[in-house]
Amino acid sequence: MDTHKYIQALPKTETHLHLEGALPWPLLQATHPGKYASPPASWAPDFRFRDFAHFETELLGYAADFFISAQRYHECAQAIFSDRLARNIRYMELSFASGCMDFMNLDGREVCDAIRSAVPAGLEVRIFFGIHHDGYTEKMAPMLEAALGWENLDGIDLHGTETTPLGHWAQDYWRRARDAGKFTKAHAGEFCGPDFVRHVVEILGAQRIQHGVRAIEDASVIDLLRERGISLDVCPISNLKLGIVPSPDRHPIRQLLDAGIPCTLSTDDPISFGNTLEDEYLFLATHLGFSHEELAAVARNGFRAALVSEEWRTANLALF
């Protein structure tokens, strides 16, 4: 079978997606006619962001122009979910940013409920609250504390610039989140090296890592991830365009898989990278020589990592 058709037919998951960064371009265009007439230059395959600040400034500009209410989050989520269902994606984890709640003066619980109310039949969705390294401020503390009791919130994720010092509040908060039944993730091993992967695993107790690709630089960190059964939610096109890897053929996902680290595939922030989940699978096939069976193995990793009942997991793994 043609590789593109094979990928389209694969049952898939997406476990690393920022809702603000997945804002569909037509929705943004519709709210600001004329301002966004053409897609971003960053969608070009050879585009590279100068640094994380360049990327974040562009992304937050889009977000500020659209996410002015919980209803806007609902509309965005509806469009995202519809698109993912059409791509044979059966399970998703997406986050919304506490920093946007802060900047836009929005009620995080209302936003979380608005996202949940957009979930269609046939798609399993888990919602995460993304908190920046310095996000536990006097203003945001009441919301972050209340979030541990939100019924529609499934977990928390560490977001933002990795090089920003991580406040002392985080260790206790991540522990209390797990005590409250929330799943805990963290972005690490992207701009910072393997030491920060170790930190979020050993200090925060993160149960899954977003990115984590630089763990490959330290065999002891690889051992730690393998011993604890921690998966990496990897986004190769994001890693390339942000300069984490120098070229497509230098991406370490194959080495990570060969080392026994389960890796999933996701798109991260498609409004900035112009990517689809099919593009991520094609990246593996085109640049790293993944066979159809190896692509299917990566897809199965997503179902194994999913926060679902064993019955649902078994039924979906049986589709392969």
| Low-confidence segments | none
How would a textbook summarize the main sheet? Answer: 8 strands, parallel
Say which CATH homologous superfamily is assigned: Metal-dependent hydrolases
Rough outline: globular
Biggest sheet strand order reads 1-2-3-4-5-6-7-8
Number of strands: 8
Q: Please tell me the CATH architecture by its name.
A: Alpha-Beta Barrel
Number of domains: 1
CATH fold topology:
TIM Barrel
Strand content: 5-15%
N-to-C series of helices and strands: HEHHHEHHEHEHEHEHEHHEHHHH
- CATH C-level label: Alpha Beta
In angstroms, what is the radius of gyration? 18 Å
Please identify the structural class as seen in this structure: alpha/beta
Number of helices: 16
Taking the alpha carbons of the first and last residues, their distance comes to: 15 Å
